[in-house]
Amino acid sequence: MSTFARITFDSRVMGGKPCIRGMRITAGTIVGLVASGHSKEKILNLYPYLESEDIDEALAYAAWRVEEIDIPLMHESA
Question: What are the transmembrane regions (predicted)?
Fold first, then answer.
């Protein structure tokens, strides 16, 4: 697994979902905001306790996760 210093997992925070620095904002929330067209500046204005690097790492984490999904191989019948 890659190391993401700003992505944390705690079962007591947001049900254990990947969060930004232990805060109650998930990496998925950040990725969703970017996907819906919000600029980094807009996100930082909406969540002033975030840092620019938090957004970058949320996106990097999401990209890494997509690459890590296992797809079962289909076996042909003999």
Answer: none
